[in-house]
């Protein structure tokens, strides 16, 4: 029994080959934009790309495999090239059977998807396409159609190669984290979790817009409720709405994202109609 467990662990700790990572890359590429579910977004691509490896590593433990799948079916949305690299790093961490790897992988994806979305959009979506597109368009105006062919022939393979290198960097970096630096995992997990909370917290006032027009009037003096709330804590109402939404999704039995969206729509319409919310 002891030798059998050692064999399973040694097999799981073997790093994936570059050929296997190309398989991972292809599966992620064809599904990253295939699902626009607001509940999971690219979470489906994560599961589809990781699936064959989970089935290989955890075939002897169906319960653990199920936890691995469920852990990666959560909301994830990032620029696709960096998203693949982050998912590859999470895959390396998920390769470990230690229960703490579940939280670490989830926290890693949550904390990195926001910052790397902005970087990835600039590096891979905005700058190359604008620059190369402008050059190609100018050449086309001059009657040179070959420039378009050159752009496709050079830019597409180059960007594919860069994407694959990012995946390799992400995976082997994650593999190093759970091998040579395993004694530091608790500190790293806590740091990544804190970073994830900060990122999500920073998104609340940016994405959730809730204000109230109510005011307190005494004689000629008037004080808006919104200014009082802002004095207590800026973006207090968005924080309250986010907290209520989170509580409903996690604590109310039978609640899901679709039901919560409809509840929010009806509630905001009614509260706006009665002048409670602006």
Automatic annotation (TrEMBL):
It comes from the Bacteria. One of its GO terms (biological process) is phosphoenolpyruvate-dependent sugar phosphotransferase system. InterPro entries: GatZ_KbaZ_carbometab (IPR050303), PTS_IID_man (IPR004704). Keywords: Membrane, Transmembrane, Transmembrane helix. The chain crosses the membrane at residues 75-93, 143-162, 191-208, 228-249, 261-277. The keyword Lipid metabolism does not apply. GO terms for cellular component: plasma membrane. This is PTS system mannose/fructose/sorbose family transporter subunit IID.
């Amino acid at each position: 029994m002891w030798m059998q467990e050692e064999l399973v662990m040694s097999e799981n700790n073997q790093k994936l080959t570059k050929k296997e990572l190309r398989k991972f890359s292809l599966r992620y590429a064809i599904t990253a934009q295939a699902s626009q579910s607001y509940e999971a977004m690219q979470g489906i691509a994560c599961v589809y790309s990781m699936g064959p490896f989970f089935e290989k590593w955890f075939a002897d433990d169906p319960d653990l495999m199920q936890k691995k799948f469920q852990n990666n079916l959560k909301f994830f949305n990032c620029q696709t090239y960096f998203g693949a690299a982050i998912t590859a790093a999470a895959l390396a961490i998920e390769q470990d059977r230690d229960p703490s790897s579940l939280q670490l992988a989830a926290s890693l994806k949550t904390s990195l998807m926001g910052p790397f979305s902005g970087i990835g959009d600039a590096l891979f979506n905005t700058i190359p396409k604008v620059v190369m597109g402008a050059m190609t368009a100018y050449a086309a105006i001059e009657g040179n159609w070959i420039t378009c062919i050159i752009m496709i022939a050079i830019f597409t393979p180059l960007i594919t190669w860069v994407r694959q290198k990012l995946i390799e960097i992400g995976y082997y970096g994650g593999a190093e984290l759970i091998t040579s630096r395993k004694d530091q995992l608790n500190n790293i997990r806590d740091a990544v979790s804190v970073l994830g909370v900060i990122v999500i917290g920073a998104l609340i006032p940016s994405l959730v817009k809730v204000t109230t027009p109510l005011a307190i009037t005494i004689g000629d003096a008037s004080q808006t409720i919104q200014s009082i709330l802002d004095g207590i804590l800026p973006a207090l109402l968005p924080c309250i709405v986010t907290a209520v939404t989170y509580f409903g999704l996690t604590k109310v039995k039978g609640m899901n994202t679709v039901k919560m969206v409809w509840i929010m729509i009806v509630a905001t319409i009614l509260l706006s109609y009665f002048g409670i919310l602006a």
